[in-house]
Design brief:
single chain, about 350 residues, Glucose Oxidase, domain 1, 8 helices, about 30% strand, glutamine amidotransferase, amino-acid biosynthesis
Length: about 350
């Protein structure tokens, strides 16, 4: 077996973890966050919401089913991934499987990382690292090969990550009878797939695009990375869109931007929710769902205006998982009802949105 270079993961609290490289050998820095999902690393790595982050996978064995083809459909959507490329700054695992086996695999995780120039390290005690992140919260970190000072710490939340990952021009998908404007804050392709499956025309616009004079039947606000407070231009446009009473739905970052447009405040979670097994309850009912999540910020329920109310609540920590307007067709979910990868318990929210159009 080829020799792997030794690496160090340094955290801004002074902690040092030693491991080996299996990806592209470059120093990199960002926010260290953990994901407790057991599968789905191709989808997670290509989820734009991980932009600027060093992703720690708590499941110990990673890489054993390889990577599917990086192919695209005629409409430009990835066949098996969630975007056009890897967005995470790095992936950090305990045990990397150099051998892989899966009917749909065409290459190893390591070769994919090298091809896209993304760092990957293994041999890290991810249990100890995750306990540290749970106790102290998500931290700035950096992966270095030769010297501790070869790269500086970076706080990606101080950068407008949404502007980095959003599309730069208007893109239209499908030819359905209803038109939905999709505000791209870093949209996962499965959100677009779920809308197209329900026979709508999707008009994907950049995060700061003024769509308010366009003709459309519904507005959809996507997921995205970083701090929602950097997206004031989107909030202003959403607020203007509320004046026309057209149905609005948001997912993840979209939940936070809709809440901000309605006057609520957002705050940073200690270590966020990144997993496939977050339990949420629909407010006012005993209906509970297992959800896929990836976010580091949350809506402050206490700041919701009189016209708004929580739609879902996280059953682990009581945080907001969605909101709805009391009289108008506006609602959102903090989790991912399209869940790619993850449970599909809540995909009915797409049906609810399309029925309102």
């Amino acid at each position: 077996m080829q020799q792997q270079r030794t690496v160090q993961l340094l955290l801004d609290d002074g902690s040092v973890f030693h491991g080996k490289s299996f990806g592209y050998e470059k120093a990199t820095a960002g926010e260290v966050v953990f994901n407790t999902a057991m599968t789905g690393y191709p989808e997670s790595l290509t989820d734009p919401s991980y932009s600027g982050q060093l992703m720690v996978l708590t499941y110990p064995l990673v890489g054993n089913y390889g990577v599917p083809p990086r192919t695209f459909e005629a409409n430009g959507l990835a066949t098996f991934m969630e975007s056009e490329k890897i967005h995470a700054e790095a992936i950090i695992v305990s045990d990397y499987s150099f051998e892989y086996s899966h009917w749909n695999a065409v290459e190893s995780l390591g070769s994919w990382l090298k091809d896209e120039k993304v760092a990957g390290i293994y041999g890290i005690d991810t249990r100890e690292l995750t306990k540290l992140l749970r106790e102290k919260g998500s931290m700035k970190g950096k992966i270095v090969f030769d010297a501790a000072d070869e790269i500086d710490f970076v706080d990606p939340n101080l950068i407008n990550q949404v502007d980095i990952v959003s599309c730069k021009e208007v893109i239209t998908y499908g030819n359905g009878s209803k038109k939905v404007v999709l505000v791209d804050c870093g949209v996962k392709h499965n959100i677009i797939r779920c809308l197209l499956k329900r026979d709508v025309t999707v008009i994907r616009v950049p995060w700061n695009y003024d769509f308010t004079n366009m003709e459309y039947d519904g507005l959809f606000i996507s997921n995205g990375p970083g701090d929602p407070d950097t997206c004031e231009a989107a909030v202003i446009n959403i607020r203007k869109a509320m004046e026309r009473n057209t149905p609005i739905c948001g997912i993840c970052m979209g939940n936070q931007l809709l809440a901000k447009a309605g006057g609520a405040s957002i705050y940073k979670l200690k270590y966020g929710h990144r997993s496939h097994n977050q339990p949420v309850r629909m407010v006012g009912t005993e209906r509970c769902f297992i959800t896929s999540q990836n976010h580091g910020y949350a809506v402050d329920n206490s700041t919701l205006g009189a016209d708004w109310e929580p739609l879902f609540i996280n059953m682990n920590d009581g945080t907001n998982e969605g909101i709805k307007h009391k009289t108008k067709p506006y609602f959102s979910a903090q989790f991912h009802p399209e869940a790619c990868s993850g449970p599909t318990d809540t995909e009915f929210l797409f049906d609810k949105f399309v029925e309102l159009l």
